C-alpha cells in the first residue's frame, strides 16, 4: 500500500471522523485492525489520512463502531471514494497547503457563510483589491508568487459559476468597506463589484454599520462551510500564522450560534445594498 505524502484537507477530515467513531465506540486501534484483518499501524495510517479506505471497509468499521447515522456514513463513503482533482491541484507546491485546502472545502460546501470585519471576503474581492492585500505582506512576496496568489483567489469564484452555484452569505462590517487597501479607484471598483454580486440570487451581502449599538462581536470573523451533513460542517478562521480549520461538534455549534447572532443584528440585504451604494458615492 502506497502511503500519501501530503493528505488533502478533505482526506484528513475523513481520517479524523473515523478516529472519532472508533474512540466513541471505546475500541482500540488493534481491535479495529482485527476486524479488517490488517495491522494496528494500518489503522493508524488510515486515521492519519496517510492511507485510503474502501467503501466496503468503511461500512464494516462504521457498523462495528455502532454508528447508526446512515446519512453520516453515506457522506463519509462519498469522501472516501471521491477522486476529484479540482482546479486547486495546479497550485500544489506553488502555494501553502491551506490555500488548497480552503479551495477544496469551498468546492464541496453545500453553503458558505462568512463574517469579516477588516477585509472584503476573499471570494468577493476584485483582482486589484486582492493584489493590494497580498502586496502588503512582510516579507514581501516575489512578484511571481504574488500573482499566483491573486490568480488562485480569483479562481475561487468558480463556486458561483455553473448551473448549481453555492449559496453564499457574507456579513461585512463597515470598517472593511471603508478601509482603502489601495487607492480610491480600487475601493470604488470593489464596492461596485459588491453591488453587482449581491444582486445574484445565490449571494447575500449584509452590512454591520459603525453606529450599531451594543455590538461586541468584532472577534467573530469566520468562514462557515456547510458539509453534506451538519456533522461535516467546518469553520475556518484566520490567525497570525495562517488559517485554522475547526470541526469539533461543540465548536461548530458555538459558531453556528455566533453567526446567527451577527446575522440578526446586521442590516437586511436591501438596506445593505443602499448602504454600500452610499459609501461608493462618497469616494
Description:
The chain has 283 residues and is an alpha/beta fold. It contains 12 helices and 6 strands. A 6-stranded mixed sheet has the order 3-2-1-4-5-6, with helices on both faces. Strand 5 and strand 6 form a beta hairpin. Helix 4 runs antiparallel to helix 5, helix 7 packs across helix 8 and helix 10 runs antiparallel to helix 12. The chain is elongated. The termini are far apart. This is DUF5753 domain-containing protein.
Which key terms come to mind for this protein?
11% strand; 6-stranded mixed beta sheet; 283 residues
SSE layout and pairings?
Blueprint (H helix, E strand, L loop, with lengths): L8 H16 L4 H8 L3 H7 L8 H10 L5 H12 L15 H12 L3 E5 L10 H9 L7 H13 L12 E6 H5 L5 H14 L5 E6 L13 E4 L8 E6 L2 E5 L2 H17 L3 H14 L1
Parallel strand pairs: 1-2, 2-3
Antiparallel strand pairs: 1-4, 4-5, 5-6
Helix pairs in contact: 2-3, 4-5, 7-8, 10-12
Mean pLDDT: 96
Kindly, what is the distance between the CA atoms of the first and last residues, rounded to a whole number of angstroms?
A: 60 Å
Order of helices and strands: HHHHHHEHHEHHEEEEHH
Mind telling me the C-alpha Rg? 21 Å
Percent helix, as a range, is 40-55%
Shape: elongated
Query: How much beta, percentage-wise?
Result: 5-15%
Class from secondary-structure proportions: alpha/beta
How many runs of DSSP E, i.e. beta strands? 6
Report the uncertain regions. none
Biggest β-sheet: strands ordered side by side in the sheet = 3-2-1-4-5-6
Largest sheet: 6 strands, mixed
Helices, by number, come to 12
Amino acid at each position: 500500500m502506497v502511503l500519501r505524502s501530503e493528505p488533502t484537507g478533505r482526506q484528513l477530515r475523513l481520517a479524523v471522523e473515523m478516529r472519532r467513531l472508533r474512540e466513541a465506540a471505546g475500541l482500540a486501534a488493534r481491535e479495529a485492525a482485527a476486524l479488517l484483518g490488517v495491522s494496528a499501524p494500518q489503522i493508524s495510517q488510515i486515521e492519519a489520512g496517510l492511507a485510503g479506505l474502501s467503501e466496503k471497509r468503511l461500512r464494516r468499521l462504521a457498523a462495528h463502531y455502532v454508528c447508526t447515522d446512515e446519512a453520516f456514513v453515506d457522506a463519509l463513503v462519498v469522501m472516501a471514494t471521491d477522486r476529484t482533482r479540482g482546479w486547486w491541484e495546479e497550485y500544489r507546491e506553488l502555494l501553502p497547503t491551506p490555500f488548497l485546502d480552503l479551495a477544496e472545502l469551498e468546492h464541496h460546501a453545500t453553503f458558505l457563510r462568512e463574517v469579516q470585519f477588516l477585509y472584503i471576503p476573499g471570494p468577493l474581492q476584485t483582482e486589484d483589491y486582492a493584489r493590494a492585500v497580498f502586496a502588503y505582506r512582510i516579507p514581501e512576496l516575489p512578484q511571481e508568487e504574488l500573482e499566483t496568489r491573486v490568480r488562485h483567489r480569483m479562481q475561487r469564484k468558480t463556486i458561483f459559476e455553473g448551473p448549481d452555484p453555492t449559496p453564499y452569505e457574507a456579513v461585512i462590517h463597515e470598517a472593511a468597506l471603508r478601509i482603502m487597501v489601495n487607492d480610491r479607484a480600487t475601493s470604488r471598483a470593489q464596492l461596485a463589484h459588491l453591488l453587482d454580486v449581491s444582486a445574484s440570487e445565490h449571494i447575500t451581502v449584509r452590512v454591520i454599520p459603525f453606529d450599531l449599538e451594543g455590538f461586541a462581536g468584532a472577534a467573530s470573523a469566520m468562514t462557515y462551510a456547510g458539509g453534506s451533513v451538519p456533522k461535516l460542517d467546518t469553520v475556518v478562521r484566520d490567525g497570525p500564522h495562517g488559517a485554522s480549520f475547526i470541526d469539533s461538534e461543540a465548536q461548530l455549534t458555538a459558531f453556528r450560534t455566533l453567526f446567527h447572532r451577527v446575522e440578526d443584528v446586521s442590516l437586511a440585504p436591501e438596506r445593505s445594498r443602499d448602504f454600500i451604494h452610499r459609501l461608493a458615492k462618497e469616494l
